[in-house]
Amino acid sequence: MRRIGYYTPQDGLDCVWLVSSGGDYDWTADHDWIERHFDVVSLSDEADLFAVDRPAISALPEDSTAEEVLAPNRSLAPTLNSTSSVRGSEDL
Predict the structure, then answer these.
(1) Domain count, the chain
(2) How many Å is the Cα radius of gyration of the chain?
(3) Distance (Å, rounded) from C-alpha 38 to C-alpha 53?
(4) Is 92 a domain residue?
(5) Tens digit of pLDDT for each residue in 2-21?
(6) Counting runs of H as helices and runs of E as strands, what totals does the chain give?
């Protein structure tokens, strides 16, 4: 499962960072690519796009399911369901 990470000031708002289930910011994409290859399954109410005063997005528990991750009252960055395979940095 991949989640959308925080933007970085040096990359700007056109560079979307994807976060692995291990909590690693390991892949980037633009908004158009995200819209073509993923369905958004939940949205965060996060307002701090650059995470100035926020902790890093943490790893998901190894035994967690998508239903547990998307449980109500749990604040996460948007979570994505892939409609095609995604290559992470480990595949490059």
Answers:
(1) 1
(2) 13
(3) 28
(4) no
(5) 888 899 999 999 999 999 98
(6) 2, 5
Residue 8: inside a domain: yes
pTM reported for the whole predicted model:
0.63
Report yes or no on 76 lying in a domain: yes
The b/e string for 21-37 (b: 16+ C-beta within 10 A; e otherwise) is eeebebbebeeeebeee
Sign of the C-alpha dihedral computed for residues 39, 43, 49 and 50 taken in this order: negative
Tokens of 1: 């499962």
Tokens of 65: 């399911």
Q: Is residue 10 part of a domain?
A: yes
Pair 18, 26: CB distance under 8 Å: yes
Residue with structure tokens 């528990």? 61
Contact 13, 1 (CB under 8 A): no
Q: Cα angle at 34 between 39 and 64, to 5 degrees?
A: 55
Place of tokens 């967690």: 64
